[in-house]
Amino acid sequence: MERPRHQGMAKNTYMRWRLPLVCLLWEAAMIVLFGVFVRFGAEADAHWEEEKREMNLTSDIENDFYFRYPSFQDVHVMIFVGFGFLMTFLKRYGFGAVGFNFLLAAFGIQWALLMQGWFHSFKDGKILIGVENLINADFCVGSVCIAFGAILGKTSPIQLLVMTLFQVTLFSVNEYILLNLLHVKDAGGSMTIHTFGAYFGLTVTRVLYRPNLEQSKDKQGSVYHSDLFAMIGTLYLWMYWPSFNSAISDHGDAQHRSAINTYCSLAACVLTTMAFSSMLQKKGKLDMVHIQNATLAGGVAVGTSAEMMLTPYGSLIVGSISGIVSTVGYVYFTPFLESRLHIQDTCGIHNLHAMPGLIGGIVGAITAAAATEDVYGKEGFIKAFDFTGVYRTRTPSIQGGFQAAGIVVSLLMAFAGGAIVGGILKLPIWGDAAAENCFEDDVYWEVPEDEESDAYHMHNPDKPASP
Amino acid sequence: MERPRHQGMAKNTYMRWRLPLVCLLWEAAMIVLFGVFVRFGAEADAHWEEEKREMNLTSDIENDFYFRYPSFQDVHVMIFVGFGFLMTFLKRYGFGAVGFNFLLAAFGIQWALLMQGWFHSFKDGKILIGVENLINADFCVGSVCIAFGAILGKTSPIQLLVMTLFQVTLFSVNEYILLNLLHVKDAGGSMTIHTFGAYFGLTVTRVLYRPNLEQSKDKQGSVYHSDLFAMIGTLYLWMYWPSFNSAISDHGDAQHRSAINTYCSLAACVLTTMAFSSMLQKKGKLDMVHIQNATLAGGVAVGTSAEMMLTPYGSLIVGSISGIVSTVGYVYFTPFLESRLHIQDTCGIHNLHAMPGLIGGIVGAITAAAATEDVYGKEGFIKAFDFTGVYRTRTPSIQGGFQAAGIVVSLLMAFAGGAIVGGILKLPIWGDAAAENCFEDDVYWEVPEDEESDAYHMHNPDKPASP
Amino acid sequence: MERPRHQGMAKNTYMRWRLPLVCLLWEAAMIVLFGVFVRFGAEADAHWEEEKREMNLTSDIENDFYFRYPSFQDVHVMIFVGFGFLMTFLKRYGFGAVGFNFLLAAFGIQWALLMQGWFHSFKDGKILIGVENLINADFCVGSVCIAFGAILGKTSPIQLLVMTLFQVTLFSVNEYILLNLLHVKDAGGSMTIHTFGAYFGLTVTRVLYRPNLEQSKDKQGSVYHSDLFAMIGTLYLWMYWPSFNSAISDHGDAQHRSAINTYCSLAACVLTTMAFSSMLQKKGKLDMVHIQNATLAGGVAVGTSAEMMLTPYGSLIVGSISGIVSTVGYVYFTPFLESRLHIQDTCGIHNLHAMPGLIGGIVGAITAAAATEDVYGKEGFIKAFDFTGVYRTRTPSIQGGFQAAGIVVSLLMAFAGGAIVGGILKLPIWGDAAAENCFEDDVYWEVPEDEESDAYHMHNPDKPASP
Fold first, then answer.
1. What is the average per-residue pLDDT within A324-348?
2. Mean pLDDT of B244-265
3. What GO molecular function terms would the record report (chains A, B, C) (predicted)?
4. Which of A275, A462, A466 sits opposite B20 (nearest CB)?
5. Stretch A331-338: mean pLDDT
6. Residues of B in contact with A94 (CB under 8 A)
């Protein structure tokens, strides 16, 4: 068993002082900034009884906690178990997949609470947080988990933390432009989370291009049980995606509708993925890579429109198409991206998030442009698109235009941000591994000796060979 | 390592055109039918604000979404992770277990939304759906997942899709007869889901009897880690079963009571299962097959009665008995069914679903027959059994009789339906594998080479042996 | 592969009659006691319609079920999947970890419903249960799961059941003293669950000290995939901890606040754990033991104070400190406890539950003592600490004193109870394994032959070695 002769060959991957320093300094910064800025919102504050009277609420059940907490927990599972385990498919990178995802997400949600708080929940010098902020912080970190998928196995934990710092910042700016300046609807984040996150990650991995990556080719595959671990991630993402797309929609029908549309889209997506996975393989066998990933494209592709009156059959159509696009992407685009454009995309986020994210943005723009008072009802129409205040004269077609503009802005932010952050990550100070040590947990983790029987064989077979 | 010499020996398992064709045509049909029939129900429609006024609701929290969505997500997890991973216990059929379960359930929920919609949510030519429809679709598919357990490892994905198509149809008819014509209560589906699903699956596997199945005997067992994967399925089914049995009960006390009864029944079931698992084994050791399956019988066995005033101690009794019956079934009945009745039941669904389902139906009938206004309260009595309209004169003992009739109808539908569908599946056009290739993922899946160290040994040890 | 030559060497581990007897007798006792005592509470009883009128509730959504059921399910997952899988890290004790945890928890929740019911829900000779009782039963069992962590791999299932019986009893007494006599706040159980459970378990394992445990040293480690299984447990505990700490808090702001504080504390804890894990290892590599455990200390450490106005930055501070203390504990204290104090702590519960539990108790006392009407609002202040009735004159500083007293009482109960129960478990009648057979599933479980390829090698390599 050729264990890599990593550890300070060409590169210094020694983390002992660098990683602790970054973690501790940044956590200290979080504490200071939270101390200065973050306080409980009215619904989580002990003054709630007074607040309740002021808001004229008769029951504690009207607290936003009860509208959103179950969805929050589902989203939380998606970020930590969903993304974490989805990436355990590599045979020797399970610790890194789950563990680094854990690390970057735990840091990212803190920084996102601040960044998003300054933009959206800032009042009298304080950021007031409640369950909706927690969901949004998880969403923001979701875009980092997506980008992580592109560079999985090729970066040090410090690089991931640096990327998280910058990406969360840029995410918040982009989100502010879309939601507040363009007044765009994007509850499930097709644009803000998936399009932005994926193209950001793809740009970063392009900048970090490693010409000799085939040296670790043998570790880029899966083994039987690592594929099953990855299916845990897949299924939790798939099952809870209705919660993801509905988590921050308006109370009542909008949350309800988002969940139904997403449920339908995802169901359709599974069938077209299976169909194309079999069709595009000579022997007609199904490929776990497709099942693990492309089945989720349906959730991404209704991220913007799920809370609109997309209708169940509309969702089936969108889901069907996105499953096809995503599977085709794995078979044809990913090799092309690597060989021609030098974009090494470990998890294929271009297929699972980038293209379906674009579809999602476009479907959202069309659905918005096609909205009528007849379909939504007079009140429902205004509420669905928040056509109030300065936006009360906006028409559906104009809204559709702004939605489309949101896609373009997200793409530009992703390319520009990814290029800059990629450049920063390229500095030779972050401790990334040499090409032949990529996709190998042993570089940054204490790895136990293999299964006892294997360990036994590791020492033995060579000996009897020379009696 | 003797890899099977499958692939087109006696049988043609080539899926390349057949599987895509079935998936794509059926998904297209779903899109058309959804387009014609399926719309949002009032609580998911953008007209909800008007609806709210009409229904005299003061708050969005009264939307059915908030009563049922958390339970829906739990049920969703049970169908996809619960059933999917429960069946990963086989050493070389993990991809098929999780993947085919994913495929059939994703198709099944779409078809169930239509079938159940026509029977139960049809209004002015449209099927109006909300969160309760999603739960019911998942329930319906649950019965297919159960049947899948009997034929696990012996069928092609196309056969599973064909079975799903028919079984969902028959399920909906049976459910309509029970709930609407017999006016039977069965919120947790002891009869409609478990009894029907299990006897349907057992009949199908009987028709598909394979005399030479011992040729793949070596693959019918588990390995250490596959048993742990299966425990993920077991635990999620066990933990979320209170949500399963309460998901579509009436708002308020009925949902609350169902959850408590199920919690108690399942707890008791674990102890009797452990007791009999140890008692029935010569060396007194526990058998993972029992722990993985029989511990769940308690949830099945209170499926009908959980929302009734079964009482916590009643639940303990039912749970205790069902754990015993189920464990005894694994030790004595399963071998008997196979050798004498030629019923090859891969997962032992006869023990986990069929017998406990019957117990559940009977307990439900008795509990209904024993109901009194004293125990339920005057209003509670009418509400619990919906003794309104044409049923307002029905007495508990008559209700008990109808409940019992529901068991019989479910059995008859299962046997008749299973025989017909089994006959269809026996046609030699669906691409099932030869007996020696059963329980082997390699037939329908791209399977990665084994653990690197294993792969290494596979080639080496033989060589040094002959220096 | 040296399979242990266990089974009745020095010790008789034969379970065939003993385990079934204990399980069945105890389950029978549960049925009788439930029959005599346990009934549905008003919100789960069919008389709910009348109750609703009496309580002046206008909607079913006011049923406590809808306030707490989602949190209950999260807690349920933590107990069965969280604790169960967290302990699967051992290479050959996965069945015992998940299976025995399942067994003891299933028994424990029944006994806890009774014990806690007698103390807290007893009315007119009956224990009236609802969803809050289910949560509390799970909580109580949580303390047993913690203690199980200390003796993991060294005890028979009967010993675990005996320990559960006694520990649940003592837990309930201790909880009654703290909550009812001292009027202490401890919603997340830093004192009642973690401090008590951990020191109880540590005392038990001290009494059961095995001098020759190094005989099974080779089985005390993990393998690659067992570490990934353990991460499932870790992540579910980590993600759902906000539900744990908020599950039984007051409706409204208190639940909301608890969730936010816990979320913040846990996020910070991950960063300091990673920092110290790397810092304390010569090569700077991360250790999965720390990631699996110390990242959770932040949840334990805000267990008492989460529902108070700890504030988000306060939570970050507490989480940061507890991550450091816990990681340092794994590196320095655990070896010390074993070599000097003869405390063999398999899972390191001293680092994950004992020390963070103490921190949690102390932080709770300080936060309570520092409370002011200004911060909480007049009403909020009284509500948060329940300063009503005989307690209406209690001041924050006095409350802080009582909180501190709660820590001391919990410690004393744990030491005294642990010593007695340890003594009972030391009797040579319970069937525990010999030292060389510890941490080995084969003693109490039917274990499948290893991976087929391994099995193949097990028989072969020895042969070719001697040509």
1. 96
2. 97
3. ammonium channel activity
4. A275
5. 96
6. none
> Bridge partners of A222?
A90
Question: Identity (one letter) of the amino acid at C400?
Answer: G
Amino acid code (one letter) for A322: S
**Average pLDDT over every residue of B105-126:** 97
Strands A126-129 and A38-40 come out as parallel
Taken in order of first residue, the domains within chain C and their CATH numbers are: 67-443 (1.10.3430.10)
Work out the pLDDT band at A217, boundaries 50, 70, 90. Answer: confident
**Do the beta carbons of residue B320 and residue B268 sit within 8 Å?**
yes
B282 interfaces chain C, CB cutoff of 8 Å? yes
- Read off the pTM: 0.95
**Alpha-carbon distance values, C457 to B217, C219, C462, C465 (Å):** 20, 20, 8, 12
Within 10 Å of residue C437's Cβ, how many Cβ atoms?
25
List, as one string, the DSSP characters of B288-326.
HHHHHHGGGHHHHHTTTTTTTT--HHHHHHHHHHHHHHH
A-contacting residues of B 200-259, CB under 8 Å?
A: 225, 229, 232
How confident is the model at residue A10, as a pLDDT? 57
Question: Which residue in the set B91, B260, B454 is minimally distant from C44, CB to CB?
Answer: B260
pLDDT at residue B452, as a whole number: 43
**B17 DSSP assignment:** T
> Cβ(A361)–Cβ(A195) under 8 Å?
yes
Measured between beta carbons, the chain C residues lying within 8 angstroms of A92 are 224
pLDDT (tens digit, 9 = 90+) per residue, C182-221? 999 999 999 999 999 999 999 999 999 999 999 988 899 9
**pLDDT value at residue C450:** 65
The 10 Å Cβ neighbour count of residue C466 is 7
C14 to chain B nearest CA, in Å?
Answer: 6
Query: What residues of chain C, 145 to 174, have a C-beta less than 8 Å from chain B?
Result: 157
User: 3-class secondary structure for chain A?
Assistant: CCCCCCCCCCCCCCCCCHHHHHHHHHHHHHHHHHHHHEEECCCCCCCHHHHHHHCCCCCHHHCHHHHHHHHHHHHHHHHHHHHHHHHHHECCCHHHHHHHHHHHHHHHHHHHHHHHHHHHCEECCEEEECHHHHHHHHHHHHHHHHHHHHHCCCCCHHHHHHHHHHHHHHHHHHHHHHHHHCCCCCCCCHHHHHHHHHHHHHHHHHHCCCCCHHHHHHHCCECHHHHHHHHHHHHHHHHHHHHHHHCCCCCCHHHHHHHHHHHHHHHHHHHHHHHHHHHCCCCCCECHHHHHHHHHHHHHHCCCCCCCCCCHHHHHHHHHHHHHHHHHHHHHHHHHHHHHHCCCCCCCHHHHHHHHHHHHHHHHHHHHHCCCHHHHCHHHHHHHHCCCHHHCCCCHHHHHHHHHHHHHHHHHHHHHHHHHHHHHHHCCCCCCCCHHHCCCHHHCECCCCCCHHHHHHHHCCCCCCCC
Q: How far apart are CA A207 and CA A186, in angstroms?
A: 29
Q: What is the DSSP string of B347-392?
A: T-HIIIIIHHHHHHHHHHHHHHHT--HHHH-HHHHHHHHT--GGGT
CA–CA separation, C65 and B255 (whole Å): 8
Separation in Å, CA A141 to CA A76, A292, C239: 10, 21, 15
Residue B111 has phi, psi (to 5 degrees) of -65, -35
Has residue B419 got a pLDDT over 50? yes
Over the stretch C352-383, which tens digit does the pLDDT of each residue have?
A: 999 999 999 999 999 999 999 999 999 999 99
Q: Which of C48, C300, C38, C28 lies closest to B383, judged by CA? A: C48
* Residues C20/B324, Cβ–Cβ less than 8 Å: no
Q: What is the pLDDT of residues C111-143, one digit of tens each?
A: 999 999 999 999 999 999 999 999 999 999 999
Residue with tokens 């190998």: A440
Task: Give pLDDT, residue B250.
Answer: 96
